[in-house]
Amino acid sequence: MIKPTVIIASTQERSESAESENLLLLAALTERGVNARVEAWDAPEKVAGWSTVDLVTVRTAWDYTWRRDEFLAWAKHMDAVTVLQNPLAVMEWNSHKRYLVELTRAGIPVVPTTFIHAGSPHDPLGPDPVVMKPAVAAGGRGAYLGPGRDLEGTLADLLSKGDVLIQPVVESIATEGEISLVKIGNKWSHSVRKVPAAGGFLVQESHGGRLEEHKATTRELEVAESALACSPAPVHAARVDLVRMNGEPVVMELELIEPDLFLRRSPREADRLTDALLANL
Q1: Is 68 helix (H, G, I), strand (E, B) or coil?
Q2: pTM (predicted TM-score)
Q3: Dihedrals φ, ψ of 107, to 5°?
């Protein structure tokens, strides 16, 4: 029997957490007799030959937000020559945070979000504190917090580069953090709580945040499931980030392209991820 070939698409420079995520999946795939390897999605001398592989899974391509158009062009090519996971339609939809508006329209509880399109006029911001960030970004890049009227110059700068979203400050993040629920295959597998550093508002470890154990509540799972149901196509793996507003869980982000699944905290889930991936062959 010919062994299937799977490429784990990553970046050329990888953080320690990215390497850990990749190696756990690589080991699980290899154990099942799969010819698997990790490659950078933007290495043209290697990508040219990927049409002969059975499946490409986007795992730790955490730099795509800097080059969304280039990334989506690459994903479109991959979709035409091999099996791409998650699907192209999902990547196109989920790579721009306008999807938050669609979730709101679908009745999903979401952090209130205002979008301002690049180059368009907007009403002056008021004195209330807000969080402002690019509509295509990840890891807290380009995020600012402060009184709206003090961020007018920042907004103008962000709008010169792309679309921007503005949200109210979620006070619970400082005390309760942000919850990440992970679904692999058809099962919600594990979850973590991401807590910002004292005095901070960004929960990522790269910004001083820390990870804690978390047991998802029934309501959190209901909200996460309803958000995931809005995806334009089924996915083999997903992460839904929730925060608490007025005592209720609401969606902060839906991560369907290259989410950190925190496999390093639940290594056995790499086996489930492998099964979910290979089910697409």
Answers
A1: helix
A2: 0.93
A3: 90, 10
